Amino acid sequence: MKIGIPKEIKPEEFRVSITPGNLLEFIHAGHEIYIEKDAGVGSGFSNHQYEENGAKIIDSHKKVFDSADMILKIKEPLDEEIDLFKDEQILFTYLHLAANEHLTLGLLEKNVIGIAYETVQLDNGRLPLLDPMSEVAGRMAPVLGTYLLSRHKGGIGKLICHLPGLEPGNVVIIGGGTAGKGAALMAAGLGAQVILLEIDDGRIRELTDILPPNVSVIKSSKHTIKKYVKNADILIGAVLLTGARAPILVDKELVASMREGAVIVDIAIDQGGCIYGSTPTYHSDPTFKKLGKIYYCVANMPGTFPRSSSIALTNSTIEYAQEIANNGVESALKNDRVLRRGLNVYKGKITCKGVADAFNMEYVPPEKVL
Predict the structure, then answer these.
(1) CATH architecture of 2-120+305-369
(2) Is 96 a catalytic residue?
(3) Strand bridging mode 263-266 / 293-296
(4) Could you say which DSSP state residue 50 is in?
(5) Which of 61, 96, 233, 266 is catalytic?
(6) Where in the chain is the domain with CATH 3.40.50.720?
(7) Rounded Cα gap, residues 12 and 307, in angstroms
(8) Do the Cβ atoms of 244 and 270 come closer than 8 Å?
(9) Low-confidence ranges of the chain (pLDDT < 50)
(10) Is 19 strand, coil or helix?
(11) In the prediction, which pLDDT does 164 show?
(12) Residue-averaged pLDDT of the chain
């Protein structure tokens, strides 16, 4: 199979979807790798490193798409990339379609076979290709929030760590998945008083057993969200409904009730955000102020640390990409139900229920189209 690795064109996105070491497995299996010039430079990988491991360097974004049977990316295609797809071309990347109707319609029109990292799901519910980046984003969130609380950034000028004679800051996290757990561990390590709101009883018990004493895991409800959010110095949204748009769990009234200069970090922004007022931002201009609160809503948070993020992600994605390349996409999807759950669009059909529901469009089960 011919596999194309385009350079990411999303602003301030420096991750790459394959490392020089990862591509050796494809080369040894007889596949061809076409990688756009400088695609790996932002993650610290030179063109020469790819070439010496067998990849072919392409000097044009369009030529990468033209050359490939499968496009392997990090982030969802931007508008200018949609027209580059060929009929029935395979796309394997983060898609987050439930928050992007325009992209969904574009991929349907192009008859793309779109497999989303974020909906590849194990039988136990774990999301193996989302988890690595959720870990990064979760660990980043309290650190970013702490910095933004500083007075010169417009915050209330409060350290969240415990100081002698002073109460620690309050960090409230909504969602106890991988990102939420990572955020809780980091915030607790910084010395904050942490409230983690989670809806699943089994997950509440699990998190209670493993998290530090300064983290209280509370059953999430409208009542508890209202009770704890209004006193938060840092509010972190980490809600995830696999393949679907994130629900708004913190409304305008509740945001307004928070203290002036409090910080909101909405990790769920890729799926539309879970807090009133959240709007995607970029690393070059990551924050904005609304209702007196500082919002951080960068939709590719792990892109801040591209080398670590690229290695962590590709270590997980590569086995599935190899499965597609070695067996063909239809066979791979038919034989692997974990990978099949990642199928979002297939030759003009929506095959992810969360995406179909988001836009009131027809859902066709993957088993039916295959």
Answers:
(1) 3-Layer(aba) Sandwich (3.40)
(2) yes
(3) parallel
(4) H
(5) 96
(6) 2-120+305-369, 134-304
(7) 13
(8) no
(9) none
(10) coil
(11) 87
(12) 96
